[in-house]
Amino acid sequence: MRVLLIEDNNDLAIEVAEFLENHGHTIDAAGDGVTGLHLAMVNDYDAIIMDLMLPGMDGLEVCRRLREEAERWTPVLMLTARDTLNDRLTGFRLGADDYLVKPFSLHEMLARLNAIGRRGSSNANNALRVGDLELNLKTLEARRAGRRLDISPSGLKLLELLMRRSPELVRREHIEHVLWGDEPPDGEVLRVHIHKLRAAIDKPFKTPLLHTVRSLGYRLAPDTGTPANAD
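and the corresponding structure tokens:
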């Protein structure tokens, strides 16, 4: 894999880079968040290993900008000395794929890196999958349980966003920004799009995938533990 390592501790960065290179990976490195974000936006990596606490721009902000502004979905393994539930939840919400708490075993890091790399390569294989729902990114054909779905171009764009972020909550304001940029229409327009998408991917099937989190946004997942709300 080609891996971007964003770590400001030079000794740790050298140790991690040498270890990964000895296991056949190619490493690019950055010592601050701004440089790391630039490299992540202009190059194609199979995975990113990133420290949470970085000079210039912390790892959470790098991750947020990478996902929301650049719409890059490269898998991210976050390194952190902070192991509270709130820190982890915030990281996952902003787009981290996994966490590793310092100090850590290099072999565990390698195992986690390989796991998120496999996850990312399946997405890069021109297809997204959530449960029995599949979206072919090359043909823009959506199928559920093998049945082809009739979805409008804007609905496909909305579906791709939700599938890429699954099973995370995607906030209404982010969806509106992705669909309409800096001048979104009133909130009812998004509700109409969600209603149409739900009719296409859920109504003909027993198990709902598209869930409304009231006043916050939407989540695409096989099971959230609660019934889906209305649009």
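(Above: one complete record from the training split.) The mean pLDDT is 86.
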